[in-house]
């Protein structure tokens, strides 16, 4: 992990968006100008190449209408939403997701977080990284799980 850099990406957000799955890109890139004042992108770089990252939101991100009331409740309690967390496929299974979360918690030490995932297989990963599953929520034809970290 010595060759890794964790930092906030303050310019050229498209660098991060380009590494996301295309369906995620469509959910954030066109709307970024509307959200950049309430969001921060944090990335992991290896040799100046972005290999992972995620976005910390202080207000509802795009396409969150099904979850807006619940999200606003957690925002009112001082939590921030973590979304678009992604590690490059060729870099997975190297603890980079844990590294990103650990570094974020160091950089934003005073913050509490919530996130959603529809992938139940990530349960152990989030528990290992200090999150607690709170509930499941129905989103159209599938369920998503809400996690908190304090």
UniProtKB/TrEMBL annotation:
Membrane-spanning residues: none
GO molecular function: acyltransferase activity, transferring groups other than amino-acyl groups
Record Gene3D superfamilies: 3.40.630.30
The entry's keywords: Transferase
N-acetyltransferase domain sequence ranges: 4-150
Organism superkingdom: Bacteria
Xref: InterPro entries: Acyl_CoA_acyltransferase, GNAT_dom
Full protein name: Acetyltransferase (GNAT) family protein
Species whose genome carries this gene: Gelidibacter sediminis
Organism lineage string: Bacteria, Pseudomonadati, Bacteroidota, Flavobacteriia, Flavobacteriales
């Amino acid at each position: 992990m010595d060759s890794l850099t964790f930092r906030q990406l303050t310019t050229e957000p498209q660098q991060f968006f380009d590494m996301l799955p295309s369906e995620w890109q469509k959910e954030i890139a066109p709307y970024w100008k509307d959200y950049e004042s309430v969001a921060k992108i944090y990335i992991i770089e290896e040799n100046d190449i972005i290999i992972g990252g995620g976005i910390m939101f202080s207000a509802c991100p795009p396409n969150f209408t099904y979850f807006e009331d619940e999200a606003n409740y957690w925002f009112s309690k001082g939590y921030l939403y973590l979304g678009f967390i992604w590690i490059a496929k060729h870099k997975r299974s190297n603890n980079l997701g844990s590294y990103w979360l650990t570094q974020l918690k160091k950089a934003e030490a005073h913050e509490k977080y919530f996130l959603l995932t529809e992938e139940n297989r990530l349960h152990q990963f989030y528990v290992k990284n200090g999150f607690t599953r709170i509930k499941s929520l129905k989103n159209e034809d599938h369920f998503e799980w809400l996690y908190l970290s304090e």
